Sequence to fold (950 residues):
Amino acid sequence: MTTQMVGKPIQRVEDKDLLTGKGNFTDDIKLPGTLHVAFIRAPFAHARITGIDLDAARDLAGVHLVMAAADLPAPAKGKRILLQVPNPAIADPITQEPLVSDRVAFAGEAVAVVVADSRAIAEDAAEMVMVDYDPLPTVANLAQATAPGADKVHPHLADNVAARIHVGYGDIESAFRDAAHTVSVTLDQHRGTGNPMEGRAVLAAPNALDGGITVWSATQAPHILRRALVDMLEMAETDIRVIAPDVGGGFGPKVQAYPEEFVIPICAQMLGVPVKWIEDRREHLLCTVQERDQTWSVEMAVDAEGKLLGVRGRMQHDQGAYLPWGVIAPYISTVTMPGPYVLPAYDLETQVMFTNKVPTAPLRGAGRPQAVFAMERLFDLAADRMGLDRAELRRRNLIPAEAMPYSVGLIFRDGQPLVYDSGDYPRCQQIAEEKSGWADFPARREAALREGHYIGLGIANYVEGTGLGPFEGATTQVLPSGRIMIKTGAAGQGQGNRTVYAQVAAEAFNVDISQVDVELGDTGKIPIGVGAFASRLMVNAGSAIDVSAGTVVTKMKKIAAAAFEVSEDDLELVDGTVRVTGEQGPSLTFGEMAQMASGMPGYVLPGGQEPGLFATHYFSPPQAAYANGSHAVEVEVDPETGIVRIARYIVVHDCGRMVNPLLVEGQIQGGLAHGIGNAFLEKMRYDDDANPVTTTLADYLLPDADNVPTAEIYHVESPAPHNPLGVKGAGEGGTIPAAAAVVSAVEDALRPFGIQIDEAPILPERICELIDAARQDTQEAS
Amino acid sequence: MTTKSISLTVNGKTVDQEVEPRTHLADFLRHGIGLTGTHIGCEHGVCGACTVLVDGQAVRSCLMLAVQADGAEVTTVEGLAGNADDLSPIQAAFREFHGLQCGYCTPGFLTSLTQLLMENPDIGEEDLRKELSGNLCRCTGYAGIVRAALAAAQAYKEAAATGMGGSR
Fold:
């Protein structure tokens, strides 16, 4: 008899503390004597620092340290942050300095730091720091970056090209030569932000006893941060402990190691006391990495029957000023383009361009939403051109389930051939069509139009490589109390990782999840780890827990079998005991077994086993686990105001086996909200001099309860073949096709005006502009 | 900097403290008296994470100075349930309907909804969503929050009908 834990919609173990104000976020940690920090940030997007006067700030009462780059101690002085994902495509792998020494390359870069008794005093002092800047020409966008004779983001480089990526396969020339139909489009996809409700946060405390340092950071990746700190500070790995306490959302931008994560520990070491910095919202919008920001010029070739022949084109990615996460995001874009479709030939040239803006790096979806937007826009365009239904054209090209595993012909971001491992893409689209009333919609649209309502239905499909390696580890231990302890480096930022990890362990030991303790996100608890990104934790950490827990269970059975003189096969784990199956015979509690396994001083250990009831396993997936899905969305557009209202949103989602459907749906719905933001709300704007202009949440619009509907979610479960749980990542699928589906629906609603939408987000004012332009064209024609 | 003496009630307890006039209520609650359940999201009055109840009204504590709360009765997320080990109806519903993920915006939603549901337990989904648009959540996509609020409304309705103030 086994209690099923995996697969049940179990309520979260995290919730009670978070609901009652007992969470433990970085700014909630109170260490005696902690000092507080304000940064002096560049007001120019590109400028040389010609002078800096810190004296007045240093004289303010309550100020303990004021420091510019020149004051940084060795070995950090003159160093840049370690790039952990190098790539031969990168021309110059330039990352940020902890404090800018000579030349700022985006507005908001930190040039000096103040440490004081309070944040308020630190900010007072920061205002007294005088920095002389010699402004340099700025590169504000892709057009400026690629113009002939363009000014340069980094004067020491030959041009603004950060990297060139060329991917493709098949005979692309023949595909276009033989095509019955070709369509082409140029698509702009603008910058969005992460904007977790908790910004970044760092607290560092030096340990006077051993010279080490403990760093609490609102990071997605404590082990990645420790690696960067080891490189910057040249300290032993064992002398730096990084802890991610409760983290208030991440969504990608909290993976990178940022300048502040070095400056704060350095200040703490210099002063010998704890030092804390809490990012404010303006700093987040200025300095935390952003994403999307690509321009695609692509064309699609289709034969007379509507079969895809090829896709080719060019993509430009606005990288911003530095490469904190290499070229991962644009690379993922380039290999996501084929999606769930049989695409015989593909060719994409990508230029990653430097600009004088905050860097781009993966943000929920990580380059995939842009590629899906490009592919799905081409499908809509081609269908309209051919006079075919948009879903029908897609249906003719979906990879059939029986073709799995399906090799695309590219190398994925994990370094392995892009081979879709499992999935039923036609079925997912079919469910989306059925549930959305796709077949009847044209009639409904006509009827609504007669009443003066502009309604539209959009559809988009995607495939997402999830669960990327290299590995994640977990230790499972049965404690003398009989409780199960799980330790892993892989912490979440709100996803409910403690709950799902406990479910996996609870199932292995056949106990309730209340018997499982989970310790996460602490480099002091497990020697190596990677972090939360690429929808990878359930695949990697979940599997590591499953395997290590299984090892401990096997060991317990061996010990008990020896003690009871029965076969291991005759034993079962019930109610926290190991006993002979089905009998009222002998049994041992987990606690008794843990005591036995630790032995008695001087005596021989029983059972011929190694001591202790614990096991550590590092799970390394051989390749990505490919999730997929189909979105269908119905909108109504007010052509006078350009306001889009989502009437219904249907998500069909396949993330393999679901450990906790309640949490999976939470991930889908939350990801969808982010995608809806990308579709018609969120646009990080810069002026022509690369000054950011949407630096409050009143200017940069996040989705709210009034514009995000509750999605109707349908699950298809195609178990992943390459991990023991059969799971795939679920964190990003909600976001990935959303902008494509919504824009498709908006365009459908506005068919009477005959407009084409080539951008995301599509904002109300742009919808009005497009309608006005279409009306003008009609008038001129008549 | 000069300080001013204030006296207020926070979660039923009297608090007397010296504060700088520039200290806003959120910082006072978090750092002045250690009630870190109230979170600061934007510090410019948009996100609603720092919402607390001041004399029963939902207030963005980042937009109110601590000195302005002199004499007021303040309820934070820590004080929503009568007993520290309990959950109020809206807190319990958030857990049941997965109305929170990272939990950072949650205190602001709970306090806002406490006032809203006590005053208007019959609210429908459409109006509820408009009311909730003053609080931002980046994790959940609001579905669980809306479900939780509609489910909890009944408990507030019953409390109002029986005249039991009880736990918030």
Observations:
- Strands of chain B lie at 4-10, 13-19, 51-54, 57-60, 73-75.
- The domain at 89-161 of chain B is CATH 1.10.150.120 (DNA polymerase; domain 1).
